[in-house]
Recover the amino acids of this structure.
């Protein structure tokens, strides 16, 4: 049975427990009636907290999210492209777009918006107004697309790393997998399956329909994977930062300098207290690699 997994977590309970630097997690809940399910739920909550700490350090959510109806005044270049500035790095798609001379007069581009309509530069997007399918009634009351100046835009986009799990077991030779959520998945995505310390890379087929939780693959699976297997694209160092932060919070939760050692015994030495700080410093060094860039 799969352990709990909270949305936006960068590792699973199984991944943390398989990490070389992991602590004993069978004594997180110390009440006499605590079950393994209670320990799993507590660990999942700590992992989610550590994941949000990584986000806060990077000054942005790093996991795949959809920003809906971001509004801004955008600059139009001389070649007819409007310059959009996302509030999150690693933009993957524009899901909705409307523009006009002001917020009271917006023309909506018919969805789905083809990928050839825009060009992504990390968190800066160039969107072609010339091919938007709408025209703007300018100040002289004739139909034209602006070639300079500013326009008001309202747009929705998806950005960030996929961090997900398999919703059902996948057998050897399967040509598709079922995932728990579809946010951020797109054709061509290279994702990784992780079960504890075992992992394998897969690629999403061109036939994938964005938004579907059924994900076709470019090649059959070379092994079987159970329900709850992690599926996503969080890089190894992002996972390592989450492991380190999780270890920090497990130790910190005891309070007053008490820590939980990898053998399950408690201690409160100065060396242990220094180790708590060192782990978070190491995690911060990694998380800062993904700090939000200015568009």
């Amino acid at each position: 049975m799969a352990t709990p997994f909270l949305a936006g977590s960068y590792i699973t309970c199984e991944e943390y427990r398989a990490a070389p630097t992991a602590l004993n997690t069978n004594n997180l809940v110390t009440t006499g009636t605590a079950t393994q399910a209670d320990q799993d739920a507590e660990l999942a909550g700590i992992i989610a907290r550590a994941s949000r700490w990584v986000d806060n350090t990077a000054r942005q959510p790093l996991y795949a999210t959809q920003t809906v109806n971001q509004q801004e005044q955008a600059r139009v270049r001389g070649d007819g492209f409007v310059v959009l500035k996302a509030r999150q790095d690693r933009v993957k798609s524009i899901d909705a777009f409307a523009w006009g001379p002001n917020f009271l007069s917006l023309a909506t581009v018919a969805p789905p918006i083809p990928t050839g309509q825009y060009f992504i530069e990390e968190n800066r997007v160039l969107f072609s107004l010339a091919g938007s399918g709408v025209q703007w009634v300018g100040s002289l009351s004739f139909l034209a697309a602006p070639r300079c100046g500013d326009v008001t835009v309202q747009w929705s986009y998806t950005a960030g790393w996929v961090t997900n799990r398999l919703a059902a077991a996948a057998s050897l030779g399967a040509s598709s997998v079922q995932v728990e959520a579809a946010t951020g998945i797109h054709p061509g995505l290279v994702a990784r399956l992780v079960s504890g310390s075992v992992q394998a890379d897969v690629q999403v087929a061109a036939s994938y329909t964005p938004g579907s939780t059924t994900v076709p693959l470019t090649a059959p699976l070379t092994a079987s994977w159970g329900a709850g297997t992690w599926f996503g694209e969080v890089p190894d160092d992002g996972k390592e930062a989450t492991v380190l932060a999780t270890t920090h919070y497990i130790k910190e939760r005891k309070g007053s300098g008490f820590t939980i050692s990898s053998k399950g015994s408690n201690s409160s030495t100065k060396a242990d207290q220094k180790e708590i700080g060192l782990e978070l410093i190491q995690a911060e060094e990694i998380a800062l690699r993904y700090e939000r860039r200015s568009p």
User: Anything to note?
Assistant: The first helix runs from residue 13 to 18.
